[in-house]
Design goal:
heterodimer, A: Rossmann fold, Hypothetical Protein Yjia, Chain: A,domain 2, 2 domains, 6-stranded parallel beta sheet, about 30% helix, about 25% strand, B: alpha/beta, 5-stranded mixed beta sheet, 4-stranded mixed beta sheet, 8 helices, globular
Chain lengths: ~260, ~270
């Protein structure tokens, strides 16, 4: 596979774009290798937060700062960093205008082998095979919910996630989220319809045991005809009240032998 | 004598009817019920009416108790905050739905029903809220059965049907008192006992939608766990039409309970 400093990564929802970026970045020779990551059309930074915690030398760029991105990318390129731009599945990469030198861009399409998306195949310099995932997005519905500050009860989250991914609230093709749990840990959940299991990753972040977390957590759901209000309501019912948070955090601190700060 | 034992109907009238038909087909001489006639399901009054009209000896379940005395279980009754919130919604709905005579009947139900060497309880002889799960410690299980004086104890509450034989054993008990010495020691022999869980009619936990109950032959001591299909979609439809949370219908159709079970088998609710 040809390498270039700016990797544009496109593909259907759940095909494995973020996973490809993670693997590609970590396959570089030096563990100190620098990188920068930009997610286009993400709106809430689920993937960005996951990558940032798993790859401390990967800088996350903010799409909202679009005017300054070209300058930042230029600086990072000068430092020898690899740049990754993940293009949301709902954005047409062929119509995308980016403020980068096209000669520096390497286009990667992460596609199931059965895909007949000739436009994307022709756009790509390289096509990376992906698992078979749902690809008919003619009636796609996307729902995103920031949850920053919410602490969820693990048993409740387990029930909610099972219901969500098994169709209790409508057809869900893709769900991913970052959740803060009462024991201070944060987890990345990644579900793709058609793949056997949800991927659960404990994020490499310090335990948060001082009230409500001031770090990102949130959920993104892709599917069709699902009941957003019921999802939001059930998710709300999984959250803990302030007094319960204080009680459990005190217990966890005690069990960890820590002193309250 | 062949007896049928059923438990945890939870307002599921369709399931109850199917089980009663099966019991009839099996030619059982007598039926016992281990409580939880109401809660979660859409037909609490109809279920109670049916049990009353057939004059089925019934002990009080935890949901029956909560409807009579008010919901004041400690958090052990729910394994998650989501289950607790859903349980409260179900309790409030049931509390509004049931007729005064239904509530009065539930108040008359005893905690323990005994017949000859058989004993019938909802959770355990100590509490309607206690879970005697299939893998409960043998000592705990034996203590619960011995406390009733029966040879066979039927329980429900966990929604998991099982038969557990408790082998003969010797118990040694030492009592220490602050102002008395030496310690007093006693020994006694415990004969073979059996613990039989009847599963659940209205919301079984075996991953399928079928209702469960048990048949017991008091002469041969044979136990048969029965699994009975019923039109669960009618119950699901009624759940939605009557204004209960639609998630209850979805879960029931998936072969899951309306909410969830508690995990700690030895914890007794300390209200």
């Amino acid at each position: 596979m040809k390498t270039a400093p700016i990797n544009l990564v496109a593909g259907p929802s759940g095909s494995g774009k973020t996973s490809w970026i993670y693997t590609h970045f970590h396959s570089q020779q030096s563990p100190q290798a620098l990188g920068a990551y930009l997610a286009l059309g993400a709106q809430i930074p689920v993937d960005a937060s996951y990558l940032a915690t798993e790859s401390p030398t990967l800088e996350v760029l903010d799409e909202a700062q679009r005017e300054s991105i070209a300058a930042v990318v230029e600086m990072r390129l000068a430092e020898g960093a690899a740049i990754y731009v993940e293009i949301g599945f709902h954005i047409d990469p062929l119509a995308l205008v980016l403020p980068f030198d096209p000669g520096l861009c390497h286009r990667v399409a992460v596609l199931p082998s059965s895909s007949e998306d000739l436009d994307l195949k022709n756009w790509a310099d390289d096509v990376v095979p992906a698992a078979e995932v749902y690809r008919d997005f003619s009636a796609t519905q996307i729902w995103r919910s920031p949850l920053t500050g919410q602490i969820l009860d693990p048993a409740s989250l387990d029930t909610f996630w099972h219901e969500l991914t098994q169709g209790a609230y409508g057809a869900v093709h893709r769900a991913k989220g970052i959740f803060d749990l009462v024991d201070g840990r944060a987890f990345y959940f990644n579900y793709v319809a058609g793949l056997p299991n949800t991927q659960y990753v404990e994020l490499k972040v310090p335990r948060w045991l001082k009230g409500r977390p001031e770090r990102f957590s949130g959920l993104e759901v892709v599917g069709e005809g699902f009941d957003q209000a019921s999802i939001a309501s059930t998710l709300g019912d999984c959250g803990l009240e302030d007094d319960a948070i204080a009680y459990y955090q005190a217990q966890i601190k005690e069990s960890l032998g820590e002193q309250a700060a | 004598m062949k007896i049928a034992v059923m438990s945890c109907i939870h307002g599921n009238y369709e399931a109850l009817n199917a089980v009663l038909s099966d019991i009839d087909a099996q030619k059982a001489d007598k039926i016992f019920c281990l409580g939880d006639l109401v809660g979660y399901g859409p037909y609490p009054n109809q279920v109670v009416e049916m049990i009353r009209s057939l004059d089925i000896p019934t002990c009080q379940g935890c949901w029956d108790e909560d409807i009579v005395e008010g919901l004041n279980s400690c958090e052990c009754s729910y394994p998650s905050v989501l289950a607790e919130k859903r349980g409260r919604v179900a309790h409030e709905w049931t509390n509004q739905e049931i007729h005064p005579e239904t509530r009065s009947f539930l108040a008359t139900l005893p905690m323990v029903v005994q017949e000859d060497n058989l004993c019938f309880v909802h959770g355990s002889p100590h509490s309607q809220h206690e879970y005697l799960l299939p893998d409960i410690h043998a000592f705990t299980a034996l203590e619960r059965v011995l406390s009733t004086g029966a040879d066979v104890m039927f329980c429900g509450h966990t929604h998991v049907p099982y038969v557990r034989a408790l082998s003969e054993g010797t118990f040694q008990v030492r009592i220490s008192q602050p102002n008395a010495d030496p310690d007093q020691t006693g020994r006694f022999e415990a004969p073979l006992k059996r613990l039989i869980n009847a599963g659940s009619v209205g919301e079984p936990r075996h991953g399928r939608t079928d209702a469960t109950y048990v048949l017991y032959d008091s002469e041969t001591q044979d136990v048969a766990l029965r699994e009975v299909p019923y039109d669960y979609q009618k119950t699901c439809q009624a759940i939605i039409e009557k204004g209960l949370p639609p998630i209850f219908a979805w879960r029931l159709a998936q072969g899951m309970e309306y909410a969830e079970r508690a995990e700690d088998p030895t914890h007794v609710c300390e209200r």
